[in-house]
Amino acid sequence: MKLKIYILYVLLFFAALGVFAWWLFPRQGAGAFVTEKLNAPGGPLSRVPFRVSVGKIGPSLPLGVKLGNLSVFWDSGKESPEMSVFVHVPVFSIFKRPLPVLVEGRPAHGLIKLQLQAPDVHPGSWELKQIQIEDMAFSDVVVHPSSGDLRLQGYAGLTFDQAEQIPAKIGGGLLHTMSGQGTIQGRDIQADMSDFLLSLINLSSLTFSRMEGRFQMDGGRCKLTQCLLKGPVIHLSLSGHIDLVNDPGQSRLFLDARVLPQSPHIEKLARNPLVRMQFPDLAAAGLSFHIRGTLEHPEPSL
Description:
Helix content: 10-25%
Number of helices: 6
Structural class: alpha+beta
Order of helices and strands: HHEEEEEEEEHEEEEEHHHEE
Shape: elongated
Oligomer: single chain
Number of strands: 15
C-alpha cells in the first residue's frame, strides 16, 4: 500500500512539474531566440531570399512545438500573412533515423502540410518528402502585365502524388532539388482585369468556379498539363512550363492559353460586332494566346 502511495506522489510531482513548465515556458523569448538563429549569417536561412519572424513558441502535446505569429518576409519586399505552425514527431517514430518530422501551417484559411526527414539536428540537412496545400485563400494578388493590371483572389491547393518523389534539400536550392508530379486545384477564383488581353473580347471580370490540373517538377521547372479553369462565362485551358527561381515573382512564364469554344457564353461574346470584327472564328475555334514574362509581370500576346 505504501509503495502505491509513493508512486502516486512521484506521478503527482511530475504532473505538477509539467504544468508549471508549460505555464512558465518563455514563449516570446523563445520566439525571439529562434528568429535570431534562423536569420543569422550562416544560419539555416542564409541562402534563401526570405526571412522568418516567429512571435512566440510553446510546447504542443504529445511531442511537438507550436510557432505562433509566424511571418515570412521576402527580400523583394513582400510579406506573408501571419500563421500558426505546428511541428511534431509521431510518438511511435521517436527512435527512427532519419527522424520523420511533420509540419502543419495554419493560416487564416487553408492548411499547409509538410513531411520532412531529419538525419540530424541541423535543418540544412533535412529532406522535404511531401507537400500538401489545402484550400489556401489568396486575395488582392496584383500582377502587372505590360499594360493594365490583373487582380486575383480565390482558393487554391496542390498535392504531390507520392512522398518518395520529392528528395528536396531544405538548405539552399530547395526549388532546384525538388522533383515529382501531382495535382493542383482551385475554386471561386475571381479575376478583375484592366486593359488585359481578354478585354479584346469584352471581358473585364471573370469568375472560375473550379480549377483542376496536373504539374510536374524537375530541376526548378514546373510543367503544367491538363490544367482547366471552368466558369459560368468561359472555360480556359493552360499548358506549358514555369522556370522557378527563389524569388517567386521573378519566375519565368512559358504558357499557352486558350478560351475554349465549349465555353458557356462563347456564342454570345462572338455576336458582339466589335468582337466579331477582330475574331470572326471565336465561336468555332475559341481564342488562343501566349503568356510570357514573369509571374509578377506577365506578358500576354496573341
